Amino acid sequence: MSEANAPMLAADGRPLKKSLQRALRAQKLRALLLIAPLLLFILLSFLLPIGDMLFRSVENQIVPDTLPDTVKDLSEWDSESGNLPDEATFQALYFDLFLAAEAKQHSRLGSRLNYERPGISSLFRSTGRRLDDLGEQYQDVFAGFDPSWEDAGFWFRLMSAQGDDDAARDVLGAERNRVAKLTGIDTGGDIGFVPSATMAELLPRTTREYTAFAVYTVKDKNDVVAEEEPWESVYAALGLDLEAADPSAIAAYSGPGAEVLKAAALQAGQLPVIDYRQAMIDIDEGWGQESNWQTLKLYSGEYTNGYLLNAIDMQKTPEGPELKPEKQRIYIKLFLRTMALSLAITFLCFLLGYPIAFLLATLPLRTSNLIMILVLLPFWTSLLVRTASWKILLQQQGIINDLLVWAGIISNSGRLVMINNATGTIIAMTHILLPFMILPLYSVMKTIPPSYMRAARSLGATDWTAFWRVYFPQTVPGMGAGAILVFILSIGYYITPELVGGTSGIFISNRIAYHISTSLNWGLAAALATMLLVVVLALYWIYDKIVGIDNVKLG
Amino acid sequence: MCLAFAQDFGVVTACNRGKDMAAEPGEGAFVAFEHVQKSYDGETLVVKDLNLSIGKGEFLTMLGPSGSGKTTCLMMLAGFETATHGEIRLAGRPINNIPPHKRGIGMVFQNYALFPHMTVAENLAFPLEVRKMSRAERDAKVKRALDMVQMGAFGGRRPAQLSGGQQQRIALARALVFDPALVLMDEPLGALDKQLREHMQYEIKHLHESLGITVVYVTHDQSEALTMSDRVAVFNDGVIQQLADPPTLYERPDNSFVAQFIGENNKLHGRVTAIDNGRARVKLDDAAGEVNAMAVCCGAAGEQTMLSIRPERVIVGAGPEQNALAARVDELIYLGDHIRCRMNVAGRDDFIVKIPNSSAHAALRVGVETNVGWLTEDCRALDAA
Ligand SMILES: Nc1ncnc2c1ncn2[C@@H]1O[C@H](COP(=O)(O)OP(=O)(O)OP(=O)(O)O)[C@@H](O)[C@H]1O
Ligand SMILES: [Mg+2]
Description:
The complex is a heterodimer.
Chain A: H1 2-5, H2 16-56, H3 62-66, H4 68-74, H5 87-102, H6 106-116, H7 120-129, H8 132-145, H9 152-159, H10 169-183, H11 197-202, H12 204-219, H13 232-244, H14 247-252, H15 258-266, H16 276-283, H17 290-298, H18 306-311, E1 314-315, E2 322-323, H19 331-362, H20 365-380, H21 383-394, H22 399-406, H23 422-446, H24 450-458, H25 463-491, H26 495-500, H27 508-517, H28 522-546
Antiparallel strand pairs in A: 1-2
Helix pairs in contact in A: 2-28, 4-5, 6-7, 8-13, 10-12, 12-13, 19-20, 19-23, 19-25, 20-23, 21-23, 23-25, 24-25, 27-28
Chain B: H1 2-9, H2 18-22, E1 31-38, E2 47-54, E3 59-63, H3 70-78, E4 85-90, E5 93-94, E6 105-108, H4 120-129, H5 135-148, H6 164-176, E7 182-186, H7 194-211, E8 214-219, H8 222-228, E9 231-236, E10 239-244, H9 246-251, H10 256-261, E11 266-276, E12 279-284, E13 290-295, E14 304-309, E15 315-316, E16 325-334, E17 338-345, E18 348-356, E19 369-373, E20 379-382
Parallel strand pairs in B: 3-8, 3-9, 6-7, 7-8, 13-20
Antiparallel strand pairs in B: 1-2, 1-4, 4-5, 9-10, 11-12, 11-14, 12-13, 14-20, 15-19, 16-17, 16-19, 17-18
Helix pairs in contact in B: 4-5, 4-6
Adenosine-5'-triphosphate binds next to α3 of chain B.
C-alpha cells in the first residue's frame, strides 16, 4: 500500500515527475521561441494599445500637472461650504496659471475641463490673456525703487547661488519637475543657473518663480537666463515675499544686490496691496462662481472615474456620482441599440447562413464550389463599394423602391425609408458579416457524415425529425462560433453604420470615433471603448455559462 | 445462355448461375430484387440486372471486392438510393416509392452512426420515440435491447466513451430495438480487430437465430461470409457471380472468379481436348501432360480453360490414375497442424499443397522430385479468366 503512494522513480533514481518535467522543459522552450515573434507582435499591437486605452479612460494628469499648487490647496476647501476658496488658493492659481499661460498650456486644461463643464474653457483662455496686468502693478513700483529691478543681469546675480554650499538644488529639481510635467519637455541638464539657498530662505516664492522662469527660458526658448528680464509673476512673488519677510533677516543679508534688496524691503509699505481673489474675479468673473471651482476640485486627482461615469450617462457631483439629466443621456441608449442591432444582425445572419452552409456541405463538390465562390465574393469586394451599392439599392429613389412602386406594391408617395436608419444598418451589415456565419457552420457541417441522417431515417424518423433531432444538434458548435464571431464583429463595427446608419442606425463605435477625431475627447472615447470591452467580455462570460465555450468549433 | 448474357453487359465471366438460381422469385420470397439496375452517372452500370430473392429468416451475405456494388444494393433496399430500373419488393410489396423511414428496416452502418449528442439509451430510444411509443414501453424495450447485447450498464454513456466493439453492439441493438423483420448490415465489423470480429460474428449469428430476423449482410471478408451465412452472393463488377450456401461455394465454385475469390486455389491453364459425360480431358499448357477434370464452365473442346484444385485436395505421390503430374518441392512452411508446400508443377511455381502434419510425409524436402495428382471430382475446369 505504502509503495503505491511513494513517488515513482526514474531509472536514475530521481522522481519520475521531475525527470519528465526536465525532459519537457527543453521542448517547451523551443516551442516558446517559435512563437516568440507572434507573442511580441500581439503584445505590441494588441495588449499595449488596449492597456493604453484602459489607462486613458481614467487618466487625468493634466489637471494636477497644470495647476499643482492650486489643486493642493483646493483639497482643503469644502466645496459645499458656499464660500469661495481662500486667498492662498487664489494666489496659487495665479502663479500656476501664469506659468501655464507662458507655456501656452492653459487652454489645453480649459479644453479638458470643458468636457465636464461646458463653457469653462473660455474662462481659462481669457484669464491667460490678462494675467500680466497683476504683476505689472508690482513691476512699476519696483522699477521706481531702483532701476536695477528692471535689469536682467541684476536679477540673475541676485538669485544665483554663491557657490556649491549655497546651491538650492531641491528648489531647482522641483521646478524642473514642474515645468517638465506642464510642458512635457525634457528639463534635465545644465541651464546655466542654480538658485541660491540663501534667497530660497529669504524670498521663497520669488526663488521658486524665478527658477521656474529660468528652467522654462532655457529649456523651451533656448535663451540665456542672465539676459532675460523675469516674468511679471516673479515681481508679484517678490512683492508677496517682501510683505511676509522678516525685516531683520533681510537686513542681515550681504550677498549680491543686498543694497537694492534692503532698500526695497524698507519701502515695502509702498507696494500695492493686492487682493488676489478680487484680482482674479476682475480678470474673469468665472472665478467668482463656486461651480467652476467645484468642477476643478472634482477633477483635481491624477486619476478620475469621470470619463467612465460619463460613458454610462452619469456625472460626478460634489454629492457623489448621479445620473445625468434625462435629455443628456445618450450612451446607455446607444449601447443598448448597438446590442439590439447586433443581435438582430446575428440572428438574420443565422437565418440566411444556415441553409447556405447546409447546401455547401451536402451538394456535390462542383456545385458547392460555385456557391462557396458566391459566399466569398463579398470578401473580394471593397467594403466601401459594397456599402455604397446598398445605398444605391435601398435609397428612396433607389432600385428596390422603384421596383416596388412599379409593381404597385407601394405608392409613389409611400416609398420606403430603408437607408440612413437602423434598417439600412441591419441590411448592409448582415450582408457583410454573412460569411462569418457561413464558414464556421460549413466547416462543422462538413464533418457530419451523411450516415447520421441516413441512420435516423432508417430508424423511422421523417426527414424533418432526422434533421431536427440528429443533424441540428450537431451543428450547434458551428452556430455558436458563427454567432459569437458575427456578434462581436458587429458590436464594434464602425464604417457601415457610419455610411448607411443615419442617426438612428449608428453604433457606439461611431460615437467613439467622433470623440477621437472630432471632439478630441480621447478620455471619453477610451472610456466608451472600455465599456464596450467590458460589455463584450461580460457577454462572452454569459455565453460561456450558457452554451459553454468548449461547444464552439471553428472547423 | 450464359454467353449471351455476358455479351449484353460486358461481363468478363461467362458462367454465373446466380441469375438462374434467383430467376424465379418464389412466392415466399421475403425480399426480392427483380432486374434491378443502378447507375449513378448515366454512363456506367454499377449494378447490372440484379435478380435476388431472400427468404424469411435467412442470413444472406453479399460478398465481393471493393467497388463491386454491394453497398449500392443495400442502399437501394434501405431506400437511400433509387433503382434506375427494376423492382424491389419487401414481403410481396413493391417498395420503390416508399421512403426509408416507412420501410421499417433496421440498419447497421460501417461507422456505426451512433448519434454523438445522445446517450446510449437515448440512441436506442430514438426509433421508439419517433414511433410515438409510451415512455414505459420505451424504457422496457431499451433495457431489453441493451441486455441482449450485454451492455445493460452503459445506458448513460455517450458513444464517444465506448470502445469500438461496444459501439458496435449498441449500433446492433439500435437496429434491432424496434423489432424490424429485416436488418441490413454494411460491413459492421470492418473496424474491429480480428479477435473481436470473430466474437461479434458469433454474437450476430446467435442473435439472428434467436430472433428469427432476416439479415442482409455486406462484407468483403470471405471467412466472415462463410462462417455466418445461410447463403452467400458473390458480387463482382455489379453482377452476382454465384449465389450458394458456403460449402457449395467453396467446394463447387461456378467460375474462376469465385474459385479464386473464395479460399485458396491452385490454377492450371490448358486447352479442352474432349468433353465426355460431364468430364473434361484437358491438355495442359507447356506440354506438361493431360489430366481429367469436372467440366463445369469450360466451353467446348478446343477452348482454353483454367483448372481449379483446392490445396488440401492435392495428393502427393499420386499414381497415374490420379491425374499425376511431375512436381518439385520449392518451399516448405511449417504451420503446426499442417505444412504448406510450394511446388513447381506444369511450369508454374505457385502450386500450393497443404499436407497434414503426419509422419507419413516426413520425407518431403526442398528440391525433392515427386508426383502430385487429384481425384477427378476434386478438380474443376472453369472459364479461362
Ligand atoms: N454516390 C455515388 N456516386 C457515384 N458513384 C458511386 C456512388 N456510390 C458508389 N459509387 C460507385 O459505385 C460503385 C459501387 O460502389 P459500392 O459502394 O456499391 O461498392 P461496394 O461493393 O460497397 O465497395 P466497398 O467494399 O469498397 O464498400 C463504385 O464504383 C463506386 O465508385
Ligand atoms: Mg461498401
